[in-house]
Design a protein that fits this description.
By secondary structure, this protein is an alpha/beta fold. It contains eight helices and eleven strands. Helix 4 packs across helix 5 and helix 4 packs antiparallel against helix 8. The longest helix has 15 residues. Keywords: Amino-acid biosynthesis, Aromatic amino acid biosynthesis, Oxidoreductase.
Length: about 250
């Protein structure tokens, strides 16, 4: 039995196990299983791998997308450039190879949300591992962006000093933070939503719930919105290809 799974903390919101279990059933893949492995800290990864020698691949989520890189034997050039890993392939020899499939999902999500629109500037909420992939994707599209962080050392703005005009002028706003994720469904990033317009595009990387408070506020102002489901599915399928050797390092 080939085993796969997700590491992170917390994992109660994750749909990964359900997604892959359904995939294996639909495609009659009978020799594979997927499970959630909530780690108290990233150092527990070594013990997990020792305990489960049949683990062939892992997805990585908050808060370990950056920390996990120190435990890998090799990292793809793109993941290295992004500065975050969300997919690990374990070779038959036991080597751990890191990839970033978030970027694959983000490219698809941005294309679906924006269509032919070309925002002159974007605002990225959050500065963690997912945010780094968002920044990479925006740079690819030539869209300038500013970062909002709880830590003044990491962003251009904090949530307490974000100017209203920046929100008004940033026609693409991406929530790359976990704020609003189930079970905290009444929460939303603290930005001045009154300055959103029908010309705004809001992308939330959160997919549970389907309509986050962040997206609902955008809808109330007439903005175009998209949740994280497209990104989730595309990155999951890219991970599957990597685990099956279809993607080279």
């Amino acid at each position: 039995m080939r085993k796969f799974g997700l590491i992170g903390r917390p994992l109660g919101h994750s749909a990964s196990a359900a997604y892959f279990t359904e995939k294996f059933s639909k495609e009659a893949i009978n020799d594979c299983a997927y499970a959630l492995y909530e780690l108290p800290e990233i150092g527990a990864l070594s013990g997990l791998l020792e305990q489960h020698p049949e683990l062939c691949g892992l997805n990585v989520t908050i808060p370990y997308k950056r920390e996990v890189m120190a435990f890998l034997d090799a990292v793809s050039p793109e993941a290295r450039a992004i500065g975050a890993v969300n997919c690990i392939r374990r070779t038959p020899e036991g080597r751990l190879e890191g990839f970033n499939t978030d970027i694959i999902g983000l490219r698809e999500a941005l294309s679906e949300l924006l269509g032919f629109a070309e925002p002159e500037q974007a605002l990225v909420l959050g500065t963690g591992g997912a945010s780094q992939a968002v920044q990479y994707a925006l740079a690819e599209r030539g869209i300038p962006f500013a970062l909002v962080s709880r830590d003044p050392a990491k962003g251009n703005y904090t949530y307490d000093n974000l100017p209203c005009e920046v929100v008004e002028q940033s026609r693409l706003i991406v929530n790359a933070s976990p704020v609003g994720t189930y079970p905290n469904v009444t929460e939303a990033p603290r930005i001045p939503y009154a300055y959103l317009t029908p010309d705004h595009y809001l992308l939330d990387l959160v997919y549970n719930p389907e309509v986050t408070q962040f997206l609902d506020y955008g809808r109330q102002r007439g903005a175009h919105t998209l949740n994280g489901r497209t990104m989730f599915v595309e990155q999951a399928e890219a991970s599957w290809r990597i685990w099956n050797g279809e993607e080279l390092l």
